[in-house]
Amino acid sequence: MRGQAVMALARELAFPGQVMAPLERAAETLPEWGYESLAAPEAAGAQWEAIAAMLPPPAEDGGMGQLAAALAGACYTRQAYRRQGIPDEIFGATMGCFRRFLRETSAITGRWAFDRGFWTWRQVGCRLFRLGTLEFEYCAGEDAPVLHVHIPSDAALSRKELEHSYAWAERFFAGEGRAACYGGAPASMRCESWLLAPALEKLLPEQSGIRRFAADYQRYAVDEDAPDFYQWLFQCGADTPVERLPERTSLQRNAKRFLLGGGKIGAASGERKQFTSRPSCAILGKNSKGASYEQEFSS
Predict the structure, then answer these.
(1) Mean pLDDT value of segment 1-27
(2) In sequence order, which residues have a C-beta less than 8 Å from that of residue 193 and are 6 or more positions away?
(3) How many helices (H) and strands (E) does the chain have?
(4) Alpha-carbon distance 261 to 110, whole Å?
(5) Which pLDDT does position 126 carry in this prediction?
(6) Cα Rg, the chain, nearest whole Å
(7) In what order do the strands lie in the sheet with 217-223?
(8) What is the pLDDT averaged over residues 143-160?
């Protein structure tokens, strides 16, 4: 039955046909243990580590075991959404990450494989939600709860879309998403991304979507040596010689020229300048240290 539920969800999420057969084989051999806890915000991270340790290494099965396990957990995530009154629209948008990640990995490596199990336990664990064009991850943090903002690779960074997402997030975590706030109401929105790198101001016009997004944040840390942009801007590894970087877009061309001249791009962290904390978000559990991973590129 679990295998059937996994495959039904994969079809609903419009997975690429190339992964369906290997995914079905992996789903048929899933261990019978612990998937419901993957949908619990405080338990999801540790539970994912325990389940992943029981599965074949991704190098052996292209990550299909981990993908099947994540979808098995997502079946319980849907039940949790419905109990909390979270619309199916948000479930479909949030779980759309799986199809997106499969396509991204295929574009970069030429293989249909799943390599984001270390990340997607957040979506399955009712901690990260896609609300419009952006994703928002609740982290209890060491000092005060935070909403970490993530930018999917298919995000539209128009002012209208950005404001729609920010407003939706503030309503959501005070309303139907309040069960995710196990450490209390979020006190700020923060983002850690190569999209906030100060160097991009030299490489993009002021009206670009990336600069529009970055302008919403007050930077508090810059890491010029962060390599994330190689993957999300150039779709290649950080060990790729600069001379071999692609030049398909104007940003790629400008960035490559900048790097060849000795420039650095890196990444930065920032806090959103305008944020309304919602103290009505219920405290449902003890604090737990959160983690942030900013992964994706949007033009």
Answers:
(1) 95
(2) 150, 151, 228, 267, 268, 294
(3) 13, 6
(4) 30
(5) 97
(6) 19
(7) 128-131, 134-139, 146-150, 188-193, 267-272, 217-223
(8) 95
Structure-block tokens of residue 121? 């336990």
Q: Say what the pLDDT of residue 276 is.
A: 67
Average pLDDT of the chain, as a whole number: 91
What residues form DSSP beta bridges with 229? Answer: none
pLDDT of residue 142: 72
CB burial of residue 51 (10 Å; 0-12, 13-18, 19+): buried
If we measure between CA atoms, which residue out of 219, 221, 239 comes closest to residue 230?
Answer: 239
Say if residues 196 and 292 touch (Cβ distance below 8 Å).
no
Q: How far apart are the first and last CA of the chain?
A: 41
Asked if 196 contacts 210 with a C-beta cutoff of 8 angstroms, the reply is: no
Helix then strand then coil, in percent of the chain rounded to 5, is: 50, 10, 40
What is the residue-wise DSSP string for 37-50?
Answer: GGGSTTTHHHHHHH
Using alpha carbons, select from 252, 285, 169 the residue that is nearest to residue 216. 169
User: Helix or strand or coil: residue 102?
Assistant: helix
The yes-or-no verdict on residue 281 having pLDDT over 50 is no
- pLDDT single digits (tens) 64-103: 999 999 999 999 999 999 999 999 999 999 999 999 999 9
**What are residue 244's phi and psi, to 5 degrees?**
-100, 5
